[in-house]
Design brief:
By secondary structure, the protein is an alpha/beta fold. The chain has a single domain, classed as P-loop containing nucleotide triphosphate hydrolases (Rossmann fold, 3-Layer(aba) Sandwich), CATH 3.40.50. Helices cover 31% and strands 24% of the residues. It has helices at residues 36-44, 95-111, 130-141, 158-173, 193-204, and strands at 2-12, 25-30, 62-70, 78-84, 115-123, 146-151, 182-184. The protein has a seven-stranded mixed sheet with strand order 1-3-4-2-5-6-7, sandwiched between helices. The longest helix is centred in the middle third of the chain and has 17 residues, at 95-111. The chain starts with a strand and ends in a 7-residue tail after the last helix. Bound molecules: guanosine-5'-triphosphate and magnesium ion (MG). The site of magnesium ion has 5 residues, from helix 1.
């Protein structure tokens, strides 16, 4: 897939302030610092697109990025949105802020009409974390289609990464019937980049304009 254009569009405080739902949309969500913004930059091949940081909790709004891609040579282009959502599980936030976050994301996840798929990002360096499994359970219960993206695979040896993915899958199968799509990635090495883009392109073909 060729990236013809990838630009930041707008940050919105709530789902009703988001851009017109006239094209397919994908949302990145996951624990604070898991690598959401970095992966968006890796997909776009532009390190300056989404702000990344060592300080967790930077992203507080619904951030829309507009992508124009060509799935393959001679094909026509596709326009779609990528959304960077605020990370969850940031310990230093107050309870009130966390409540706000959960209200905003819940509404976004259940009411956004053009949302094709949520990409739930999981840090591949760790064994299954309760907070991630709970978030997956919530998506499943709300019938929000999601893909699992394991991040930062360059940071650990591959055996540990494989073990963590297997353990996460086993834990998931205890709470839902089928496993979602899973893609292992590294924003640093661009591992899994083409897989994610190809999956998005496949999902793009299923979009029906709700307008
Ligand atoms: N080695 C390595 N580091 C990564 C990778 N992805 C992200 N990082 C680093 O992890 C830190 C957090 O990355 P971000 O992309 O800002 O994480 P985020 O999920 O957007 O964080 P919030 O917006 O705070 O929720 C940064 O220091 C990144 O450089 C990766 O694939 N490999
Ligand atoms: Mg971020």
């Amino acid at each position: 897939m060729d990236i013809l254009q990838a630009v930041y569009l707008i940050s919105s405080p709530s789902v009703d302030k988001c851009p017109l739902p006239d094209r397919p949309e994908y949302a990145f969500i996951g624990r604070s610092n898991v690598g959401k913004s970095s992966l968006i930059n890796a997909l776009a091949m532009n390190e300056k697109l989404a702000r990344t940081s060592n300080t967790p909790g930077k992203t507080q709004l619904i951030n829309h990025f507009s992508f124009r891609t060509r799935p393959e040579k001679d094909a026509s282009y596709e326009d779609w949105y990528l959304v960077d959502l605020p990370g969850y599980g940031f310990a230093k936030r107050s309870q009130a802020t966390r409540k706000e976050w959960s209200k905003m994301t819940d509404r976004y996840l259940t009411e956004r009409p053009n949302l094709m798929q949520v990409f739930l990002l999981i840090d591949s360096r760790h064994s299954p974390q309760k907070i991630d499994l709970e978030f997956a359970a919530k998506l499943y219960q709300q019938q929000v289609a999601y893909t699992l993206i394991f991040t930062k695979t360059d940071k650990e040896n591959q055996r540990t990464v494989a073990k963590n993915i297997k353990e996460f899958s086993d834990a998931l199968l205890k709470q839902q019937q089928f496993l979602p799509q899973m893609i292992a990635t590294s924003a640093l090495k661009k591992t899994g980049r083409q897989k994610v883009l190809k999956w998005i392109s496949e999902l793009n073909t299923e979009f029906q304009n709700p307008e």
